[in-house]
Amino acid sequence: MPKKLTKGFQKGDIRPFLVEGEQVGLVKADVIKQLQRYPEIFCIRNCEFTKQGIVELNPAFRDYAERTKQVDIVLRDLRSKGIFSALQGWRDEYYEVKSEYRSLLKMDRSATPLFGVRKYGVDINGYVQHPTQGLCIWLQQRSNTKETWPGKWDNMVGGGLSVGYGIKETAIKEAAEEASIPSDLVKNLVSAGCVSFFFESEQGLFPNTEYVFDLELPLDFVPQNADGEVQAFELLPAKECVERVFTPDFKTTSCPVVIDFLIRHGYITPENEVHFTQIIELLHVPLQSLYTYKSVLEQKQKLKQQNQSQQQSHLANNIKTIENGHNNKDATINN
Amino acid sequence: MPKKLTKGFQKGDIRPFLVEGEQVGLVKADVIKQLQRYPEIFCIRNCEFTKQGIVELNPAFRDYAERTKQVDIVLRDLRSKGIFSALQGWRDEYYEVKSEYRSLLKMDRSATPLFGVRKYGVDINGYVQHPTQGLCIWLQQRSNTKETWPGKWDNMVGGGLSVGYGIKETAIKEAAEEASIPSDLVKNLVSAGCVSFFFESEQGLFPNTEYVFDLELPLDFVPQNADGEVQAFELLPAKECVERVFTPDFKTTSCPVVIDFLIRHGYITPENEVHFTQIIELLHVPLQSLYTYKSVLEQKQKLKQQNQSQQQSHLANNIKTIENGHNNKDATINN
């Protein structure tokens, strides 16, 4: 799926990033090298239980606010040194860094690929059922001045999930900003699932999950950009849309959303696509399986405790045997 | 997801089942024990490259027909001995046993769980958009005389993919047999993807992929069974459908289809379901990752060849060094 894979994703290259004992990211060797300069903020060591190299945020930091502040200091310093191209896209827009159930800190969105933090976004598939052309899909062409993927074709509406905004709320906000979709149309938005994929580029790691929404639009509606982030909209019949998706002019990380849409709406079928089931599996890669450090650790610790208690009970048995052998007389005497 | 997990799925318990060098299944220890009685048909050994225990169909069998015949002999013998309860549900209905790109043999559907063969089926979500009750879903109650899951609630229409039938063809056939859906309605069938899951019961292993179809029905249409396999149909509002799915009265392996439908149609959303992304990942488990024996083997063989050629070139270098040391004079003489 990734069009632009600068280097193979090799297990040994990448270490879990831990905050408060929970894995929230994946850090590659080039980033680790830089983080070593900040030993008061990042601890880089081998885990005594898993024997695995880990990158840990200093556990002395008290809370969400302090963790956010300390990481931000490092990121701004790295940015000023011009080390990572990713940080040149600094946004002053924060993404949550979350474990399974809680937010642990927030981080500028430009930095999340350096830490392999799971990124969440929303996408709206705007479509019409055309009387002669059948299923047609609205695409946007991104502005040439956008930080990421300038000039590329993309879904009608999309955006990252920033701190403080809900999922549907983000979809509605982006629908207004990017495509001027009025509230009487946006009320027809249908939540339709999510796609998950893992993308790697020179910017870093993108373990992305996109919440997808479908929006059927009237034939006469034409999206209009309101925030300067879109240079054009185009309505394409499904067939042409598929062709566009497979050109280099399409934003790579938006392809899964279109493909998922075309599968759910009966355009790509098991009859016309020989890799149908494999594609659907790849549109939903189990990203959660990449963030399992804590559960592995707990298993290892449990095993060690079991071994210890077995050894102790073995020792206790030995002692008992010795006592039975050597102290029987004393016992008899004491009785 | 599985309601009925008789025993944990442990890696070490299960061996790849190979036909013509390609992994097509997974075999548990209790089945291996029985297959050992048929050494001319099944070879149970350790792979010299992967060091893994494997179950292999005798590679001497020439073709699809002979492989099918030989396996059938074993299955009928095991059935007559009453060893596996799965085989008591013998159907005289064949499923394909396929590697990624080709069919290698066919096997009675009752036996496929014993060999952990990937099973494919179709399911139709029949639904109506009710003016007052909103999204409503047709469910069927299976006949009490069905071999599998008698009396359980199930999707409106469903069935396994038998040898000789296409995917959409099976959906249309089952729609007629199970629910008497006429051709003018069935033409609205929309292919909507697939769900994949791994289920284990006392019958064996079920690495299942269900191709799902949606069918919006008119408000006044009532399904009628035609083949005696259904005892009732009921139209339930989405909310009650979810409740039904989580009772023991619902066929476990049909739950993923309903949940996927409710996600795709905006009833289960990231707003009302905290485990939204995890559930979607679990509805699409990467089953293909369980059938990787051939690629692992090829990797190991390649590695061995590389090592050998390195050793050979090392040896060649040594010989050259020796020749340079010892034979220089001879060379000079010969010159």
UniProtKB/TrEMBL annotation, chains A, B:
<feature type="domain" description="Nudix hydrolase">
    <location>
        <begin position="119"/>
        <end position="260"/>
    </location>
</feature>
<dbReference type="InterPro" id="IPR031804">
    <property type="entry name" value="DUF4743"/>
</dbReference>
<protein>
    <submittedName>
        <fullName>Uncharacterized protein LOC105233957 isoform X2</fullName>
    </submittedName>
</protein>
<dbReference type="InterPro" id="IPR015797">
    <property type="entry name" value="NUDIX_hydrolase-like_dom_sf"/>
</dbReference>
<dbReference type="Pfam" id="PF00293">
    <property type="entry name" value="NUDIX"/>
</dbReference>
<dbReference type="InterPro" id="IPR000086">
    <property type="entry name" value="NUDIX_hydrolase_dom"/>
</dbReference>
<feature type="compositionally biased region" description="Polar residues">
    <location>
        <begin position="313"/>
        <end position="335"/>
    </location>
</feature>
<dbReference type="Pfam" id="PF15916">
    <property type="entry name" value="DUF4743"/>
</dbReference>
<feature type="region of interest" description="Disordered">
    <location>
        <begin position="304"/>
        <end position="335"/>
    </location>
</feature>
